[in-house]
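ok here's the first one, seq then struct tokens
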Amino acid sequence: MTTRWSFELLDSEDRPIGELDGVTGGRAEIVAQSALGGSGRLVVDGRQNIDWASNRVRAWFHDGDRSWPVGTYMFASPTDQHSGLGVTTHDVGLLTKMNVPAEDKVEARFSIAAGTEIIPAAVDLLTSTGETRVASTSSDATLTAALTWPAGTSKLGIINDLLQAAGYWSLWCDGSGQFRIEPYVDPQNRSITHRFAHGEESLHFPDWSREQNLADVPNRFLAIGRGDEENPPLIGIAKNDDPTSPFSRQARGRWITATEEGVEAESQQIIDQYAARKLRDLMDPVARISVSHAMLDLNPNDLVEFIPEDGVTRLATIQRMSMSFTPFTDIDAEWRQVL
């Protein structure tokens, strides 16, 4: 089965200009826990007519009759490389579209009133950056108190504060370049995107590793919200009291507590959910799986099932994927095991 990459040159509004020929190398990394979502590099010959300041590029992977967009990027820091034979190539950095709201900052103190619908406010702020390709899940959640940010705060930071208050994922951008605003889903409630099973038709390499960091892993998390003279702050509490967990209070005989103050949350349910999510994040080093597998159409935070040669079934969420722009590339992946 034939595999290959293609690269689509776009204008500043993601409208296709044409195919970008002459790509000779590069790589991309997709990172779930990064606010910017990752980065990359591209090597392209010097005969291309590219406006580095405004053009964009969408990387497609083709596997037989299946094709999918892996990432949509802006160009940054092109380096011209000249050979003695008069051949010029460009080695250019790739930035995700998350850099657009990250680099756009409010010019003055920015406030949103209590009672404002959260998701429309986040969408409006995102589209104010000039980005219009947004897929959002509606919600009737409203702010329980006014929020204010100082001048110079990035619009991405404000958007993510709002999404946190509504119990949503942080803003992210899919491979096609569309921004996504979606409710957070606990790993136990996500659908399995792919099953990696040991055997003749396995799509992963047999060598893999599982890292554990046992030091200072908390078993309780306190999320403390914002309050005022009339309304005490909401407090979300998450505990690891699973007797089968080696890090629970039952196993350790004591509480190890992590806290965060000033949490934006619209309701008790949302701040409880946030506390549980943060506790899970802080337990991240407990079970991190590194594995290499074939190119597949996967997204950050997708849930996968992993059954290696030991026959033990493990569930994990995708945290990092790194790949090269070569036809026979594999994905070097980092997963967080769901405990």
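and now the second one, same deal
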Amino acid sequence: MQRYNMHGVSIIVPTRNEADNIDLLLQRIFSVEYLSSVDHEIIFVDDSSSDATRQTVRRWCADNPVRLIERDYGRGLASAVVAGASQAAFEVALVMDADLSHPPEKIPELVQPLFHGEYDMVIGSRYVKGGATPEWPRSRRIASKLATLPARLFTDVNDPMAGFFATSTTRLKNIRADVPGFKIGLEALAAGGDELRVLEVPIVFHDRFEGFSKMNKQIIFEYLKQVVQLSRLETDLFSPGVTFTLIGAGTILDVVVFWALQRYGVSPLTSHLGSMAFAGVFLCTIMEVFWGKKGRNPVLSVTLGVGFIVVLVFSLTTQAAVFNLMSWLGNFSPIVLFVPAALAGAASFTLLSIFFLFSGARTLPHKVQAKYFIIGGVAAVVLLKLLCLGLPELMEQEAYYWNYAQHPALSYLDHPPMVALLIWLGTALFGPIEFGVRIGAYLIWFVTAFYSFKLTADIFNRTAAWGSVLLVTLLPLYFGTGFVITPDSTLHAAWAAFIYYLHQSLIRGNSKAWLGVGISLGIGLLSKYTIVLLGPGIVCFLLVDKKARAWFLRPQPYGAVLIGLLLFAPVLIWNYQNDWISFLFQGEQRVSGSHLFTANRLLGYITILLTPAGLLGLPYFFVRGNDFFKTHERGDKNTGKVGIHRGFMLLLLLIISPLLVFLIFSLTKEVKFNWTSPIWLALLPFLGATVTLPYRELKSTFLCFLKWLWKFSATILVIVYCTFLHYATLGLPFVPYTDDLFLFGWDNLAKEVESVSQRVEDQSGIRPLAVGMDPYQISSGLAFYRAKLHRGDRQKQQAAIETTLGWHLFGWDALMYEFWAKPKDYYGQAIIAVGSSKIRVEKPYFQKRFVQVYSIHSFDVTKNDKFVNRYYYRVLRNYRQPRN
């Protein structure tokens, strides 16, 4: 029986054609002074070398603790390491390459923590502080970092693909010998699960000294194959051939049922819902039969039932979106348009079922399992949002902000210019369509998610960070501002970046991070003025925290404020030129009006924004958050176990500071739904941790309940969002459309207004103005959809914008329209007044401003053959100054 010595180390070196490196490698290993104090051996495992590798090793074997294992079948690096471990004399094993890329001088730092029992695995890492790859060009460093992304599913270490590591021989022997590729360290990390204690030691990685790199396409393929195997996707059961067959069968069944329902006079909407549901039941039944016949553990009936509903609703929305997109191709029959939609629906259902329902992922360690389902869920939701991004009509606020972009300025009355810049960039690329307006919001969402991830990973770990990303994906307003364009879209991104860089500066002591603080502050101010409410919280932290107090005497914080103000300068200049009207408008709008107690409404808004799970987590964060942070903080980022956790205190003050302002305001004034949304970005690290931590680590019945509630909430939210997107794209049976949310059917309203405008122009020779009879909503929507009718013709687009004005022409407030058009410039022109109610266009004041007032007409706006709203319009000739 093999005896193991815990006080010695077996150094395992896989080789293949490394003859030129062996001598120098062994010289450097035996020069390590530490090895003279511990027993050691060097085991070379050679796979079919065609050079003098074996002969060179043999020369060292006679007088040194060097052994050679010769293999002529060469099954790869992983099996070579396992073979070496099976013959090792010591319980501590160190694995390294023979090409001198791994510095032997680091051996003591890798094995000592194992001897002391502090860690189970120690990695020589290129990607922790002090690690480096000096010979690599930037492109290779980026490629290497990207290559580690799939591996990060299985571990939170920074260098999961490292080949220089130490662990127990027993752990290596238990690894399957058929591991594909070179990444035996990744296999060890994945096999260790949640309990594996890992330390990363920085190394300077050098390119091989002699010989040629063995990296090729086959190695990349084997690495990806290894990742798939570790994720426990059932590729044997659901091979590519089986998967394509299931998708094809589902598509055919979907199309046949749709065709049959159409033959019996069922509407396309109901036919699509029925056919996809029928195909989904069929596919799920077939996959469950496959699963059972192959002897897999049965999927729990509740899990399968809930999962089936979620996957079916998601696939229905996917199919509806593609069906809607196909309708843009022209007046084809519904069955022709439905075929691509059915393919998309069947593919969505099959792939999601294989990934989420019929997968071995539920047997993965808890943290890996959490990341697996979160990353898959986030990716699915993000892709669905992209598919649906340009399908619903604009919201009236989006149309108004689009008009910002058509009138470039340093700032605007009711908002700074950042939202206008995003829309201008999007429409410059894609034209005046909904996708072009919204793509900026969609992309800027990734910035919010990125900085939320970075902050949570810095405080806790990457698993918790994925929990934060899940919440940024699913919490209502973060989901919404990543789909529709509002000033909150960029405010969330700037706020998340600001908190992250502030944490890096004040907690980690990174003076360079103040540059990020300044830039994110400036972008936040260019989005909405609300970000200044963080100021009191920051000042409080600087006063009460002894370490942070030193920043009062250093220039970086003042430089950050200066950078922020410089970026904010366009808004200051515009306000100076316009008598500070924007600041006065915001102040007067907030404080004017009657007294109204709305604290209860504020609490309701917070409940919707955070969901009940987040609302329950909030008081726990206030009361027990300090202990939670000290217990679960990353070990290498320890900020002390005594007193108040500095990171917790900073986030607490960044929440309390603006929240108190809104709470006090709500005692006498009306608050808005979206006001507190950026505040909760500072709460996400804590909430993300509660989403992903294993039950055994939560150590609290309340937190265990909260974790369950998050799972339930996530399921409900996905169903709600899919249903909402289905309604916004194709509609829902028995659910009427309303233009309170989106401007449903306004393509048709714009066509009607254009038709009337053309008739008036033909009669008078002058193109009339179109005026919406409300503060901005109708005018903004008409301007966009009239311009959209003429996409491709820049001159007609501009004419549509310039001839769609606000009702300030009649003496009422119309926000920015009052800056874009002066009434006196339009005397003598005809006007088409458009209102959402008859009374809006029958007012007697028209008699004082026009020579001729014609009769009122109505137009019914529809979408997908459903009534949306009735609009009224009348033609008014010879606009003039009002007469007494």
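notes on #2: The chain has four domains: 5-231, 240-363, 380-693+700-718, 746-879. The two ends are 112 Å apart (CA to CA).
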